[in-house]
Each structure stands twice: as structure tokens, then as C-alpha cells.
From TrEMBL:
Domain Bacterial bifunctional deaminase-reductase C-terminal: 3-180
The organism of origin for this protein: Pedobacter segetis
InterPro entries listed in its UniProt record: DHFR-like_dom_sf, RibDG_C, Riboflavin_Biosynth_HTPR
Protein name (database record): Dihydrofolate reductase family protein
A Pfam family of this chain: RibD_C
Length: 189
């Protein structure tokens, strides 16, 4: 059975974006890109909210074709184009997109069907609203967090309006030279 892992960059005080969705505080470098690429390469399904999906779709399909494409751009573009994409959106209902499934209703039922079909980890990239929806339905199996060395003070929180306590088990940590720390958790049953 496939598990859904939420992949997020997060501030030390728990925000995944600034008040207006700003993400210019996120630190990334080749060391992080290489580390992330190893795990992403083991997955074949990406989950997104509508906003994040549209942002990804505007860049990744052709990122490798640009003359200035980095190693990361080429590798992730190749993965993105092969990966099955699942978009959680009420407004894209009925859209027909290549290699992309839209889930606009019966969230719990539809996600559980996906989990039954997939033997691999499904990565939920960014997408705070989609993450919050999946949290409310207890559909997230783990968190792959990249804690950035910054306190934002305000913004879009990762954990919002939770109605239940969730116990996590820390699997791994990794410190990167840029000051970011990876925390890899699974939810304990």
C-alpha cells in the first residue's frame, strides 16, 4: 500500500510560506537538490493542490530544454514528465490533462483508492491547502520537512486547525551546509 508523505520547506516557527505566499526565504543548493532527487526518484506519483500544480506545470515540462538548464532542472524535469500527477482541486473539475488525475470530491475515498493502487511512496509537494485537507481526513502518513534557519513571525502555517493529536516517529535527520535541517517523520499508528 502506498503512503502519502508531505514534502515541505518550513520556517523554524512552523510556516510554509509568508503571509502573501512568499517563499523567497527558502534555502536550496546543489547539496539539497541531490539529496532530494534520490528520494523523489523512488516515487512515481506527485500530489499537488491546484496552485502548486499550475506553478509546476508552467515550469517543469520544458525546464530541461532551456539552454541554461541546471543538472537539477534536467533531472527533475525528466522525473516530472514521467510521474503520475494527482491534483486536489474543486475548480479544475472535469479537466482532462496528460498523465494527471483531478480529485475534486470524495477526497477520503479517492485518496484511499490511490493508496491501495500504489506500492510506492506518493509525495505531496508543497500545497498548504491540499496538505491541510489531507490532514483533516488523516490521510498523510509522514512528513519530510526541510527546516530553514529563519523565523518568519507570520505566514501560512503547516499545522492548522488540527482536531486530534498526532504522534510522530523520527526516521532520519540531515544537516546541510546552508543551515537547513531535514526531518523525516512517519505517523505512528
Amino acid at each position: 500500500m502506498g503512503k502519502i508523505i508531505s514534502f515541505m520547506h518550513i520556517s523554524l516557527d512552523g510556516f510554509v510560506a509568508g503571509p502573501k505566499g512568499e517563499m523567497n526565504w527558502i534555502k536550496v543548493n546543489e547539496e539539497i537538490f541531490d539529496h532530494v532527487a534520490m528520494r523523489i526518484g523512488k516515487s512515481d506519483t506527485a500530489l499537488y493542490g491546484r496552485v502548486t500544480y499550475q506553478m509546476m506545470e508552467n515550469y517543469w515540462p520544458t525546464a530541461a530544454d532551456k539552454p541554461s538548464a541546471s543538472k537539477h532542472d534536467m533531472e527533475h524535469s525528466k522525473w516530472y514528465n514521467k510521474a503520475q500527477k494527482v491534483v486536489l482541486s474543486k475548480t479544475m473539475k472535469g479537466a482532462v490533462l496528460n498523465n494527471t488525475q483531478i480529485i475534486s470530491d470524495n477526497l477520503s475515498e479517492r485518496i484511499n483508492e490511490l493508496k491501495q493502487q500504489s506500492g510506492k511512496e506518493m509525495l505531496l509537494f508543497g500545497s498548504p491547502s491540499a496538505t491541510h485537507s489531507l490532514m483533516q481526513h488523516n490521510l498523510i502518513d509522514g512528513y519530510w520537512l526541510f527546516v530553514n534557519p529563519i523565523i518568519l513571525g507570520q505566514g501560512i502555517p503547516l499545522f492548522e486547525d488540527l482536531k486530534h493529536k498526532t504522534t510522530l516517529k523520527l526516521l532520519t535527520t540531515k544537516q546541510f551546509t546552508c543551515g537547513v535541517t531535514e526531518l523525516n517523520y512517519i505517523i505512528e499508528s
